[in-house]
Amino acid sequence: MNNLISMRDLKRAEIESILDFAARIEQGDVRPDLTGKLAALLFAEPSTRTHFSFDTAMKRMGGQTLSMSGTSSTSLQKGESLADTLKTISMYADLIVLRSAVEGSARFASEVVDIPVINAGDGANQHPTQALLDLYSIIKTQGRLDGLSIALVGDLKFGRTAHSLVQALSEFSPRFFFISPQHLALPSYLLEDLREAGVPYQELTSLDGIVPDLDIMYVTRVQRERFVDPEEYERVKNSYVITPAVLEGAQPTLRVLHPLPRVNEVSTAVDRTTHAYYFQQAANGVPVRQAILAKLLGTEGTK
Ligand code: NCD
């Protein structure tokens, strides 16, 4: 693994190796040492969890970070090309973590620099490190990844975390329920991949009747910033609101996941139920990103 750009590039064995490494880091069985290593965290779009958990992960392993939040203080504002900016930063840092509104930007970055690149979200396309921490959260709560019933709920069109998670889980014999308004359905290229791989899925517009079947309910925010027409956003923004009443009849082991930030699609009353797992999910971002950084920087370390 030289870069982490898309979940499509990772097969089951590589996914399992990252998750296993993250578990050993979290349990303290292995302590990668990144002393002297510098990661450039370049976030052209807003971020709380992804940015700060990458920062935390580097620092927990003795490494250091350079950070950019928005482009307003960089020479991109003077008209410098993204390629020149990235080439320059690659002279200072050992690895680049990039978030951008432009689909394909992380792949592009990996082609113009000689250091590892991690995609921290490229427009509505991919968010592979989120998918890996989602899988890690699923194993922790369900004890396994194989053969689970998973509903993805909300904006499946623009939600990059949903795209990466669907690809990641496809390796583990899932049964999928895709719940979205018709206009926010999962892109057809992803559905085609599922059909080709023989993965069963149902596309629905409501959760009615399926909640008792689920192991995982993965809820996503309607991605306001990706809508061309604000009125269209207004029409769909409240399509699903998960409340304790919606979860009645669920298996006790059902866990509600959400990449966060939430707007109002999961009511705060759900936080007090045993089904809520989204804040622990965010915490899981640290060991998973430690594992990814240590692997890409070639310092897996021993105790
Ligand atoms: C997600 C993202 O940026 O795609 N956030 C995150 O990284 N946890 C989800 C979102 O913004 O809705």
Describe this structure in words.
44% of the residues are buried. The chain has a five-stranded parallel β-sheet, with helices on one face. A four-stranded parallel β-sheet has the order 2-1-3-4, sandwiched between helices. It has helices spanning 12-26, 49-60, 82-92, 105-112, 128-142, 160-169, 188-197, 230-236, 278-296; strands at 38-43, 64-69, 95-100, 117-122, 149-153, 175-179, 201-204, 216-219, 255-257. The chain is globular, with a radius of gyration of 19 Å. The protein folds into two domains: 7-126 and 284-296, 3-Layer(aba) Sandwich (Rossmann fold); 128-282, Rossmann fold, CATH 3.40.50. With 303 residues, it is of the alpha/beta class.
Offer a concise description of the structure:
This protein is an alpha/beta fold.
Jot down its keywords.
303 residues; alpha/beta; Rossmann fold; five-stranded parallel sheet; four-stranded parallel sheet; 9 helices; binds N-carbamoyl-L-aspartate
SSE layout and pairings?
Elements: H1 12-26, E1 38-43, H2 49-60, E2 64-69, H3 82-92, E3 95-100, H4 105-112, E4 117-122, H5 128-142, E5 149-153, H6 160-169, E6 175-179, H7 188-197, E7 201-204, E8 216-219, H8 230-236, E9 255-257, H9 278-296
Helix pairs in contact: 1-5, 1-9, 2-9, 5-6, 5-9
The structure holds N-carbamoyl-L-aspartate (NCD).
Number of strands: 9
The second-level CATH architecture of the largest domain is 3-Layer(aba) Sandwich
CATH fold label of the largest domain: Rossmann fold
Structural class: alpha/beta
Overall radius of gyration: 19 Å
The main β sheet shows up as:
5 strands, parallel
CATH H level, superfamily name of the largest domain: Aspartate/ornithine carbamoyltransferase
DSSP strand content: 5-15%
Q: Span from first to last CA?
A: 23 Å
Cα shape: globular
